[in-house]
Amino acid sequence: MALPAEGYQLKGISSRAYEHPADRAATAALKTIPHLDSVVRKIIEFGYERALRRGILGSSVRLGEDQLSHVWRAHARAYATLDLEPVPELYLTQYPIANALTMGAGQPIVVVNSELVQLLDSEQLRGVFAHEAGHVLSDHVLYSTALVILLRLSALPASPCPCSRCARR
Q1: Residue 132: is it exposed, middle or buried by C-beta count within 10 angstroms (0-12/13-18/19+)?
Q2: What is the pLDDT of residues 129-143, one digit of tens each?
Q3: Measuring CA to CA, which residue among 120, 123, 132, 142 is closest to residue 90?
Q4: Which of 19, 25, 43, 103 has the fewest CB atoms within 10 Å, counting from its CB?
Q5: What is the pLDDT of residues 28-46, one digit of tens each?
Q6: Cα first-last separation, the chain
Q7: Which of 134, 129, 116 is nearest to 72 (CA)?
């Protein structure tokens, strides 16, 4: 991908170059929890990520060179600046709160809310997309995807327990 004239590229940058020490400590603490990576990967293997992705993509529009191209270029420039390939797919969803997220353990996608696109210019959007790219480079996407899945599962109504002991209560 050719960079825009005003762009620059941080070849081979490490996430340690920009992560806050508290962020590195939190990530290191997560890695010390026995079997956490295995549990998180199993949650994703069970198809919950696929369901989450379908829910998000079903209510979103994929952006590219022909669809809100200035937003797509800001996104692509952020990834090129951090020397990250491939550039994840970018989606726009109609939502009145300014926010963006990156999800997907194996193949990340970036979702930006319509309010954010309304409020920010291209350079400000590039900053948001650089933040999201930082999550990919720092390998936060695995944990954040699992967190979103667990939060959504915890919001489901509880089904009654079929055992006779619980039924007597």
Answers
A1: buried
A2: 999 999 898 878 888
A3: 132
A4: 25
A5: 888 888 888 888 888 877 8
A6: 63
A7: 129
